[in-house]
Amino acid sequence: MQTLTLRCTLKPTPEQAAALEATVRLFAEGCNHALRVAKEHGEFRRFRLHRLVYRDLRSMGLSANLAVQAIARVGRKKGSRARFYQPTSCTFDQRTLSLRGEAVSLTTTAGRLVIPMKLGNYQRGMLVRARSVQGGMLTKGPKGKWYIHLSLRMATPEPPGGGGRVVGADLGQNALATLSGGVQFSGGLLKGVRIRYRNKRAEVRSRLDTQRTRGIKRLWERLSGREARFVKHTLHTLARRIVDSLNPGDTLAIEDLNGLQGRTAKRGREARHLHHLWPYGKLRLLLEYKAAMRGVRVVAVNPKHTSQECPRCGHTARENRKSQALFRCQGCGFQHNADWVAAHNIAQRAGSMGMGRCKPARILRVSSLHRLSSESPNQSALALG
């Protein structure tokens, strides 16, 4: 079992929208009051903070459960630097949120409201497969639209026994992912877009130093939002295509790169910046939860020398990695794509852990996340676009 978040658009009437607005504002006021008290007393522990502010929040007009949710939200913030809340969201639990067909029932300042949701086939399918709804978060978009982010408890299939394939995945910047099965996903577009947004932000930041106008601040927020949405979409697409290329019972092996951000001392300024932009942690989380829904195991192996070890003779040396893209063994002369060599070694290490069998392959093609290509139906399952 795992918990997934499903965002659905709400279709409130003008009266319901006004009630949602009032609820969100009151919830933010309650959070800010709890935060002020927490700072004054230096107490962010949830149960002790509850004793200090619960009666105040109830007297402000918050329901019992919304007051508890406001305290819980503040309790997750620690330290004197915690910022105050804007009236943009409100948290609900199972007592204050429930589903009524294709509508959601919410506890508001105007009482219990049943608000229709705008659902597509994907949302309907997720709601049908969900075991339960654990609550959700109400948010207001920049254009005044209302959204409900439902927390769904989903059943994950048990990976079938018998030992499936082991597929290694080497994650990087120039190539977002290279699979030991022979498919490589290009990262040039993502890298270029992030550099472009970085340059735009630098330009806007210089204008902020001299012109602190509302328009410049809004431009800064729009740039950050656009980049975040683009990166999120790209990572979801990449993770989905990787997982869809596997079968239930297979194992996806990746490198355990925890603490990667600290290993950039010898890089130049530009390289360090790009290195910190690489969202390895987000991609790993997406791979893990999407793989679990498909019955695919995800294991992390030791990343040491995966791109320097020869898959033929085992000779390991830094000189084997001739360039970013070329591997040439100084022991036996074996030559191949460096990213594929790393992916193959990752698969071999997972196979030695008893996860299954791995088969060698060659680079079949390089795919782009945002370029459509005419392929046969058999090939399209492995390519990105």
UniProtKB/TrEMBL annotation:
Domain Probable transposase IS891/IS1136/IS1341: 151-258
InterPro entries: Cas12f1-like_TNB, RNA-guided_DNA_endo/Transpos, Transposase
Keywords for this protein: DNA recombination, DNA-binding, Transposition
Cas12f1-like TNB domain boundaries: 280-346
Highest taxon of the lineage: Bacteria
Biological process annotations from GO: DNA recombination; transposition
DNA-binding among keywords: yes
Molecular function GO terms recorded: DNA binding
One Pfam family hit: OrfB_IS605
Keyword DNA-binding: yes
Record NCBIfam families: guided_TnpB, IS200/IS605 family accessory protein TnpB-like domain
Family as reported in the entry's similarity comment: In the C-terminal section; belongs to the transposase 35 family.
Annotated protein name in UniProt: Transposase
Protein source organism: Meiothermus ruber
Lineage: Bacteria, Thermotogati, Deinococcota, Deinococci, Thermales
